[in-house]
Amino acid sequence: MQSEAGAAGALHGALQTGALCSTYTASQGLLLMIPNMYKIAGELLPAVFHVSARTVAAHALSIFGDHSDIYATRQTGFAMLASGSVQEIMDLAGIAHLSAIRSRIPFLHFFDGFRSSHEVQKIEVIEMDDLKKLIDWDALKKFRENALNPEHPVTRGNSTEP
Predict the structure, then answer these.
(1) Using an 8 Å Cβ cutoff, are 81 and 92 in contact?
(2) Strands (E), the chain
(3) What is the radius of gyration, based on Cα positions, of the chain?
(4) Fewest 10 Å CB contacts: which of 27, 56, 70, 150?
């Protein structure tokens, strides 16, 4: 993709076809995703955006995490989860995905981009088999049945007058 705007558009399209997917971004990249975030939230698609929160460049580029990027997305309709440590990033990443599937609400999982990328910590990894036990399989089936399919055409994203 040329930018994060294209990545968010590709993610939106993949979600429409019934694929579970997520993206990772920070600062200005997240701001380019905002138009797609409104559509993803409005269509109740279970996306997860993992955001290494950083300062949005104003007077100078900064790598520190002041969270100005994620605060710019509060109005999009995404639920937000904040992680405070490397272990929480691991744990809440899975929770964000499981919650998005069950609730049909997209999640923005964010953490301090400076601290998390400049720390060396050991974490306890969650095994995929343990996560599979937590999936709401009925909600996942319902999401996939609602996906775009040439065998069952529907109209989406139409335009209407007031």
Answers:
(1) yes
(2) 22-25, 48-53, 79-83, 107-112
(3) 17
(4) 150
Type of residue numbered 152: H
Phi, psi of 52 (to 5 degrees): -85, 90
- Residue 60: partners with Cβ closer than 8 Å, 6 or more residues away: none
CB 116 within 8 A of CB 67: no
- Judge contact between 13 and 38, C-beta under 8 A: no
Q: Give the Cα separation of 110 and 33 in Å (integer).
A: 15
CB atoms within 10 A of CB 125: 9
| Residues 11/50, Cβ–Cβ less than 8 Å | no
Could you report the per-residue pLDDT of 78-111, keeping only the tens digit for each? 999 999 899 999 999 999 999 999 999 999 999 9
Amino acid at site 67 = H
Which residues in 17-162 belong to E strands, given as ranges?
22-25, 48-53, 79-83, 107-112
Q: Confidence band (pLDDT; 50, 70, 90) for 118?
A: confident
Overall pTM surpassing 0.85 (yes/no): yes
pLDDT digits (tens, 9 = 90+) for 14-67: 999 999 999 999 888 999 999 999 999 999 999 999 999 888 877 666 666 678
